[in-house]
Design goal:
With 302 residues, the chain is α+β, with helices and mostly antiparallel strands. The protein has helices at residues 5-37, 41-119, and strands spanning 123-134, 137-142, 155-157, 162-169, 174-178, 185-190, 196-201, 208-214, 224-227, 239-248, 254-261, 270-274. The strands form two sheets. It has a six-stranded antiparallel barrel. It has a six-stranded antiparallel beta barrel with strand order 6-7-8-11-10-9. The longest helix has 79 residues, at 41-119. It is rod-shaped and about 145 Å long.
């Protein structure tokens, strides 16, 4: 029986070869025409324009993912920068606060130095360790004691004026009784007229009390009060305060007034102790409220 396989498939193979030749001829013809005339360029441009939306849609997921990643990185960077800037701002504010504090302290120290130079005083600088401004107890604790030459009765001043006196010492500390203590009294004189009066502590760190002012005394609101030196407790000439509004007392026989202290009793970290002045060695009795024309000492009232 004759085999018919190769003869049966030959027509199909010939047809396939013919189609391939036709396509090759057509492709070569199109390339030659496009090379010489460029008439397919417009077709390609239009085809690319038509395909642009498809390409944009195809690249949308990739662009969205990249945008999300970029936004996440940007937000994290912004959060980190914001935290760093807040920390820098707080640190700058803290440094500025320290600088302002240091500037204020330097100004107070310059004031202390200026008062020493103006008065040519023999003084000792002492730091304030503690402040007790209870209405019934107005005290300072200083970081200098008998081991540094501090003694009981030594006057204490600042750049503004008289602050008080030392009432107790240890080898390393000293306790100062402030002018505003209710158990303290200071003989003063009016700088303008020379009238001698007595100033008492009120228990308030911003006020002293001027009592028993004779109606005929030459005392006016705003007068400066200085230590008179009577009683040999404080040296004369140190500022104590300034007279406020005068008013009649309960008896209507005398006047009284509040006095604004010249010293900054509730501020500063350093004070000056006078070393060139020795107060009286013998303590004086408790000073009663002065009567008209009578002066008493500045010994603390107990």
């Amino acid at each position: 029986m004759p085999h018919a396989g190769p003869s049966a498939s030959r027509p199909g193979e010939i047809a396939g070869v013919l189609r391939l030749l036709v396509f090759l001829v057509l492709a070569v013809a199109l390339m030659v025409l496009d090379f010489r005339g460029g008439w397919l360029h417009a077709v390609r441009v239009q085809a690319e324009a038509a395909m642009q939306p498809l390409w944009w849609l195809a690249g949308l997921p990739s662009r969205a993912g990249a945008s999300l990643r970029e936004n996440a990185v940007t937000r994290a960077q912004l959060a980190s920068d914001n935290t760093r800037l807040r920390q820098a701002l707080l640190l700058s504010a803290a440094r500025n606060a320290r600088l302002r504090t240091a500037a204020a302290e330097n100004a107070r120290l310059r004031g202390l130095l200026g008062s020493v130079e103006r008065g040519r005083l023999d003084v000792q600088l002492a730091s304030v360790l503690d402040v007790d401004l209870d209405p019934s107890r107005q005290r300072l604790l200083l970081g200098a004691g008998s081991g540094s030459g501090v003694r009981v009765g030594q006057p204490v001043i600042d750049a503004g004026g008289l602050m008080g006196q030392v009432i107790a010492t240890t080898p390393t500390t000293a306790t100062v009784l402030l002018l505003t203590d209710p158990d303290h009294a200071v003989p003063v004189m009016v700088a303008r007229s020379g009238v001698r009066l007595m100033v008492y502590g009120t228990g308030r760190n911003d006020a002293l009390q001027l009592a028993d002012i004779p109606l005929s005394a030459d005392v006016r609101e705003g007068d400066a009060l200085l230590t008179s030196g009577l009683g040999d407790r404080f040296p004369p000439g140190f500022a104590v305060g300034r007279v406020g509004a005068l008013r009649a007392d309960d008896s209507r026989a005398f006047l009284k007034a509040e006095v604004k202290p010249a010293a900054q009793l509730d501020r500063g970290r350093d004070v000056l102790l006078l070393r060139g002045y020795r107060p009286a060695n013998q303590p004086l009795p408790n000073p009663p409220l002065p009567a008209q024309g009578r002066d008493t000492s500045a010994e603390p009232r107990r």
